[in-house]
Protein 1
Amino acid sequence: MRSLLRGVKRLFTDDGGDATAGLDQADDGPTDTTVTDVGEPVPDGGVEAAAGPATAGDGEDSMLSRLRRSDFLGSLPFWLPPFLLMGFFVYGAIGWNLLISLTDMSGFTDPDYSNLDLQNYAQAFSDPGFINAAQNTFVLLVAFTLVCLVVGLLLAILVDQGIRFENTFRTIYLLPMSLSFVVTAQFWLWMYNFDNGMVNTLLRSVGVANPPQWIGDPQFVLTAVIIALVWQFSGYAMVVYLAALRAIPSAQFEAARVDGASTVRMYWRVIVPQLKSATISAMVVLMVFALKAFDFLYSLAGGYQPPSGSDILATKMVREAFNRGEWAYGSAIAIMLFLMALAVVAPYLTMQYRQGEL
């Protein structure tokens, strides 16, 4: 039919070929099309042809637009100032301390950074005072943390039984943590008084005729320090464990009782294994507190020299630097104390990162 119409048009036109070219094209239907990546047809010479090639200015505008809308740029005012302050005053100071520990700075002389060596670290490992302080620090770290966790867990289990005045007991147990090391040291200095302290008075009342000199005897002073610190921080462990116990579904307690498990067996086999995260979190915090026991010992002794038998790395570091003027040696002890703290915190942070909680 279309061929017939074309023949008739050619008969009535003089230059039918050229004149009917447009009509032929119109009659032939839509022009050739291309297909986009999403399957939509795009006429030749349409949008793509009209858009033309992207220019360098368009790319820069798009990049600036994306940068202005990025979360990174928008969050800069919130995290950059504290990041710079922390980097300069904390990690910058640690780096400077490391540099001083490699010099021979002492007294009022300026450090000589042209001759750096590890002499102070070698001196530390040949110093009996440093070895003794390191042993006391390790004992304090382990004993204080373990006893604090056990006492805190027992208190949390007792409070979790729905006893009367639960909030009152919880506040009483947690209250010592709000005290400073200075107050705690003065309080226990009175408690450990040989003549009229409450501890020895209680021991004499139960038949102990010759109670120990808690602060004056090197055999008991570290134990006395650990007891005082456990008294102050076991409430923190209790709160952490209590929150973890309240998060365990009550159905597990009921299922263990239905299976005939005793209370001790239920907690040991069912409940305590689920407190692993709470135990690790509390343990890291308590270890950091133990490494910061300098304030307590300084207040207990009233000076840089703690009672015999209770010298730790923190007190020795301050004594070497500020009492004897051995700045480089004190800096070396500080770096080793920092590495000890890092060894405590780094595994915990690594575990949190792998669990996606950091």
Protein 2
Amino acid sequence: MRTRRLLIASLTASALACSLALPAHAADTVIKVGTLKLIHGITPYFYDKFTPAGYKIEVVPFETPTDAKNAVVTKSVDFGMHGLAAGILGAAAGEPVVVLAPMSNGGMAIVVGAKSGIADFKGLKGKRVGLLPGSTQEAVFLERMKAEGMTIKDVKSVRVSFSEMAGALERGDIDAYVGAEPGPSISVTRGVGKVLEHPYSTPVGSVNMVTTTHADTVKGKPELVKVFLDIHRKASEYAMANRKELLAMANAKLGLPAEVADLAADNVKLVWKVDEDWLQRCKNYGSLMLERKQIRRLPDYGSFFATHLGPK
């Protein structure tokens, strides 16, 4: 009889433990975050460290800014990390993409072949330049060309994705490219390319990637947005303060050798805080795109920026 009582007690305890554990796991809210396969898109891989109980992060990597933005618009992800240009292109076309906060600045470089003989910006005339249409880099490059008295017709523009640019330069398919890290650092460390300039002298400055969501999420799930933006703040600050872990994460998630990651990290700033300077530079960006006829009208900034839900 005593053995039977012990067995019943044991089974009851096990059943109770399961009943307590399973509902908590099942109730976790999964937050799907899309980001780019770039070192300045790496912050989401640190989110797990700062995700409160009841939530779970799922990171979805994308090849291009447009892919990441489209995932936001179609609600394939809850939040997206991509270039500002992709967001402005979408919003100007009436898509329900909303900017919540900065994500990263920098990460851009104009790279030329190490033996190309190109010594300055005007040396790009007549050269094959790798460029990704619809990217932040494209808008900045066009503005730099304007400052140099040039137009896109002065170069042979070649469509190349960011991840292919370093390889295309090494094969001799292009003479230069307007790239995103880690491409420039890969070219430099291999001795294949050299940085002609970091194109941060335009009215846009070094503004690059932004944190976005669908307009419905801002209206219907403001508490989720607040939770997410607090995670984003903590992860951004942690990654910037712990360089060794940043480099290790770049190796683990992007496969970057230590030398490449170390050089690329010097050209990247992971950010989260909204201020007037950042907002103005974002609007400058829109004006440049309108002037260059990349968009037909400016986004409605009153709805495009929903920065009121983030930490201060």
